[in-house]
Design brief:
By secondary structure, the protein is α+β, with helices and mostly antiparallel strands. It folds into three domains: 80 residues; 138 residues, no CATH class; 146 residues, Immunoglobulin-like (Sandwich), CATH 2.60.40. The protein is elongated and about 70 Å long. The N terminus and C terminus are likely disordered. Helix 4 packs across helix 6. The longest helix is centred in the N-terminal third of the chain and has 28 residues. The chain is built from ten helices and 18 strands. Strands 1, 8, 10, 12, 14 and 17 form a six-stranded mixed β-sheet that branches.
Length: 400
Amino acid sequence: MPAGAAGAAGSAGARRRPLAVALLAAALAAAPGAASASEGPGRSRPPEGASAVLDGLKTYGQAVLRGTDGAVRHIPAGLYEMRVDGGGMLQTYGVGVAGFAQPEERYTETPWSGSPLGGNGEAGRIRWVLEHSYPQLNDLAGLAKAAGAPALTAESAAAGTQVAIWRLTDGVNVEAADPAAEKLADYLQRASRRLPEPPASLSLQPAEASGPAGSRLGPVTVRTRAQSVTVAPDAAAERMGVRVLGEDGQPVTTAGNGTRLYFEVPAGTPDGTASVTVQGATRVPVGRVFTSGGPSQAQIVAGSSDSAAVAGAAAVWPAPTPRDLAAQGAPGTAIGAPAAMTPTAEEQPEDHLAASGSSAATPVIASLAVGLVVLGGMVVLLLRKRPLDEDEPPAGADAP
């Protein structure tokens, strides 16, 4: 083949390959529900608890951090304050010594498993420290006596508490600069015992219920220390006629701790989802963690005023397949079915979503698969089919 023909063939082939790849990428991006199939209902957990903005470090002393490389840093150590969305204030300590607590950073209440305390065997001891030191214990003279320390101020008590927390979270070589604060840190670290993770300030358990249209889905159970919370279905639920009911079958607008909620989905309702939101004011339990979703230092609650909290749960229909039901043990409850057939809150794990089995994404996934098969065939044909002038020299041309 002459050099010019070979160059033309290579150029055309090179043009076809990006074209084929582009077609495939465009089909994947444009396929109906391609994104929703991977980010569909139940993929992310609804909000749970309080959200807040960091005000800054308010009551603190100094600490000395010694690195493994011999470097010495003097850093502030003590109590932060946070403003809760919707009303309320929190007092918090930094979870780890690393990171920067940026004022005006937004934080959300997070389970230990989703925070830097996830997998930390000392997390329960940190909760003990918080419950047995400042500001939970405002008797500074009594706290100093228990620690065998000289007189404590609010600043030295906060510094000593923060140092003890840092030792447990990171295992770092850190000391309080004030001798009384250092005595307190040693005492708290030595005396601490493991406690369980505190519950969320407000939650719905489980966060998802599934079943067929024409049935009552649930229950989801309210867990809170608030005296009462408001209950409101979302706009999609109201539009489709989905109601949120109590165990007596009546619509619910307020609830308390332990209230069981059900989604009533009218028969014939197209496949879909709906959600319910509960809101109330309560004290955020000591030991709850707040994270920013970024590199900012996580915060752990040491004190709380009555604070606004919110939680949500979703309903998904149609029902799971029989195989999913057998594997997950989470069937929807038909309207009027005996209460014994309804899973209790204790049978529903808090941090795991109930299986939804088949969902509105199922036909989308099927159509996407068929489309990819057809497109794949087209791409193969496009790559294999070559004009004759690229495979053979033109008539009369000299052989190479």
